[in-house]
């Protein structure tokens, strides 16, 4: 049997939009009719888990029919010996993945914002890796190093080096290549010099480390508001959640713009069979 396709959201920087973009992909895949499982590797914060719990609670309280993934959490091993902890983490991930990937079309994994072993192991098994970065030079530093003037590309950053290592390890074990996509998140609607510089730098990085750059996602209040109800902009633009939008929701036009940018993002991921089903979202 063909196993499910694994999409990992990772960046060692916290607050870059991993959980928010993961939950939007999950909801998009569900509305597109796929069988979806999700794995939260951020055992401390469990933001994805909380998001999905809120989603289930909204469905029950408001009587709306919201699709939910099969969701599980893995907490990192607390074994005393680092070696033993690594072994336990690797085994826990392999066990969950073999079970979930056998019964679902996609497994979406949300990583913690730190360099944990569990997170590295997930990067090694990713068919597609999505790395959201906030549109700031400080956040860019994990992915690419610039000189003091911010002009010259010096080297791939610590996180990019880790990704390249995991991809090599995967290839060395006979695995297929990994598609790595960097996503510019929380972009300002007003183009700035800073933003242009980040765009140019990422284009150069993509040629060096072999990643692709997706169309970005804007900074919008709506993305922050939806957590408590466990919803995504894709839920809000369709029945049955349509009549139950938050009172403070942005205007129709702005919601439609958010929905379009999420659809563009999903399209840019080039996931198997997803692009031709985007019309359903
Ligand atoms: N495009 C966006 N516009 C506005 N706020 C956003 C956007 N993406 C994420 N956020 C907010 O930024 C914060 C960090 O996002 P989160 O997805 O939790 O990041 P991570 O999982 O990488 O730590 C959250 O408060 C979230 O609501
Ligand atoms: Mg998170």
From TrEMBL:
SUPFAM superfamilies: P-loop containing nucleoside triphosphate hydrolases
Alphabetical list of CDD domains matching this protein: ParAB_family
Name used for this protein in its record: Chromosome partitioning protein
Organism name: Caenispirillum bisanense
């Amino acid at each position: 049997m063909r196993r499910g396709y694994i999409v990992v959201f990772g960046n060692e920087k916290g607050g870059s939009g991993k959980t928010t973009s993961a939950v939007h992909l999950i909801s998009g895949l569900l509305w597109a009719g796929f069988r979806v499982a999700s794995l939260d590797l951020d055992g401390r914060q469990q933001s994805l888990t909380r998001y999905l719990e809120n989603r289930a609670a909204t469905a029950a309280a408001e009587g709306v029919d919201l699709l939910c993934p099969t969701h599980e959490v893995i907490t990192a091993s607390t074994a005393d010996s680092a070696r033993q902890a690594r072994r336990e983490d690797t085994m826990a991930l392999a066990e969950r993945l073999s079970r979930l990937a056998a019964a679902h079309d996609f497994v979406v994994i949300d990583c913690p914002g730190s360099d944990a072993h569990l997170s590295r192991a997930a990067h090694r098994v990713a068919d597609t890796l999505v790395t959201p970065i906030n549109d700031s030079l400080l956040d860019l530093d994990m992915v690419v190093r610039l000189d003091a003037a911010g002009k010259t590309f010096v080297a791939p950053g610590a996180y990019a080096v880790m990704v390249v290592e995991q991809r090599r390890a995967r290839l060395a074990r006979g695995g297929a290549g990994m598609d790595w996509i960097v996503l510019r998140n929380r972009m300002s609607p007003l183009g700035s010099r800073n933003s242009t510089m980040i765009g140019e730098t990422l284009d150069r990085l993509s040629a060096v480390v072999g990643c692709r750059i997706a169309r970005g996602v804007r900074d919008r209040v709506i993305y922050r508001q939806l957590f408590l109800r466990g919803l995504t902009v894709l839920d809000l633009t369709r029945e049955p959640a349509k009549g139950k939008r938050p009172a403070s929701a942005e205007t129709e036009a702005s919601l439609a713009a958010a929905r379009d940018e999420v659809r563009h993002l999903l399209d840019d991921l080039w996931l198997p069979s997803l692009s031709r089903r985007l019309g359903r979202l």
